[in-house]
Every structure is written in C-alpha cells, then in structure tokens.
Design brief:
Elements: H1 6-18, H2 22-35, H3 40-52, H4 56-69, H5 75-87, H6 90-103, H7 108-120, H8 125-138, H9 143-156, H10 159-172, H11 177-189, H12 193-206, H13 211-222
Helix pairs in contact: 1-2, 1-3, 2-3, 3-4, 4-5, 5-6, 6-7, 7-8, 7-9, 8-9, 9-10, 9-11, 10-11, 11-12, 11-13, 12-13
C-alpha cells in the first residue's frame, strides 16, 4: 500500500538533509505538502531543503502563502524575517520580526534578532535593550541572546556588563566569531589592549570572510 502520511515524508526529508541529500529532501517535503498542505512540519522541511539548495526566494514564497492562510501564526513572519536576513534585506527582515512580535510579544528569536539589527542599523538603543532583555528572559541559556544583550550594553556604554556576558557566552560557544569580535571591541573600550587583540585575532581566525571577521580585522588595525 502507498504511504500517505505527511509526517513520514516530513521526517524523511529531515533525515535526507542530515545526509546532505538536499534534492531528495526537497522531493520528500513536497510530497508531505501535497498530502497535507496544513502540516507546518512539511513546510519547514521544504524551507530547509530549499535553503540548503540556495533557493531562498522559493522558501520565502511558500511562507508568504502560509502567512496568507494562517495570519495569526507568528512562525510565518519569524521565518520570513530569518530568510530576508539571510538574503541581506535588513529592512524587510526587521519588518517581519516586528510583525512576529505583534502576534507573539515573547518570541525570543524575533526579539533577539530585531534587537541586534536595531543597534547594527543605528536605531533606538533603548528599544533594542528592551527587546534583548526579552530574548534573554525567554532564552536564558542561549549564547546568542547573551551576545546580543552584551552588544546592546556595548552601545549603551555599559562595558563591564557586556564583558561579563560575553565571557560567560564563550564558555558554551568558544568558536563563535561574533562573540569574540564583540568581546574584543568591549576590551578595547575597557583599555585592555591585550585581551582586545586576543579576541579580535580569534574572530578573524575563526571566520575571516564573515562580517565579524572582517570587522575584527579592521579593528585590529586601529588598536
């Protein structure tokens, strides 16, 4: 008998993704969506497969359709925000994260990402602080929320609190270039050039082609 369970195909898709079979994962996810268009797991699997294949616009399209038919589901604008961020469209990403928080004010991912993007785009630091604190409260063990809150503290001039959060975050994410870059910049403000250089060099070594790596390289030249 043919298998007609969308859950099976959603799970198969995720297994195929883990084995680097993105095309197979896409086919399984599409089958799941055909069998049950209302199954969010199928849509999420489809999204991961398309992202793995580099087809961000296809993933965006399916979530826009989902948002149209599920207007009260905060998952849709949150995922759309992440996808637009991946594409590099900060304005659209921030708009989607704001939509997410209108539906779900305690959404940790949207709060965290919007806080980070707010300070990166020279927005209102007090708004960013409130968002980062929400994200940290909702996701207290996440090194990403620690990194974001610390970076907001940096922009607030609260360098001691920023340093403590970043040092703590490194214990669980020692190879995160962003955390090392932010910690290096924080030590620069604390006039600790030794630790500043150490962390900035680490950021460059870990991810030389990332924004954090490039910014750390520029900061090293100014030390």
């Amino acid at each position: 008998l043919p298998i007609s369970n969308s859950t099976f195909y959603s799970q198969l898709s995720l297994v195929q993704l883990r084995t680097k079979d993105a095309q197979g994962a896409l086919a399984s996810a599409q089958r799941a969506m055909q069998l049950n268009p209302g199954d969010v797991d199928g849509v999420q699997a489809y999204t991961q497969a398309q992202v793995a294949l580099g087809n961000i616009d296809a993933a965006i399209s399916v979530w826009q359709n989902w948002m149209g038919s599920h207007p009260k589901d905060p998952a849709a604008p949150q995922v759309l925000g992440s996808l637009e961020e991946t594409k590099g469209d900060q304005a659209k990403a921030m708009d989607y994260y704001n939509k997410t928080l209108q539906l779900d004010p305690d959404n940790g991912i949207a709060s965290n990402n919007l806080a980070y993007m707010t300070v990166e785009t020279h927005g209102n630091v007090d708004v960013a602080l409130r968002l980062a604190q929400t994200a940290r409260r909702v996701m207290p063990d996440s090194p990403q929320t620690a990194d974001t809150l610390a970076w907001v503290y940096f922009f607030k001039g609260n360098y001691g609190a920023a340093r403590d959060l970043l040092e703590s975050a490194l214990k669980t994410s020692p190879d995160d270039a962003s955390i090392h870059y932010h910690l290096g910049m924080t030590y620069t403000k604390l006039n600790d050039k030794t630790n500043a250089a150490l962390n900035l060099k680490k950021a460059v070594a870990l991810a030389p082609d990332s924004k954090s790596g490039k910014d750390a390289s520029d900061a090293l030249k100014r030390l």
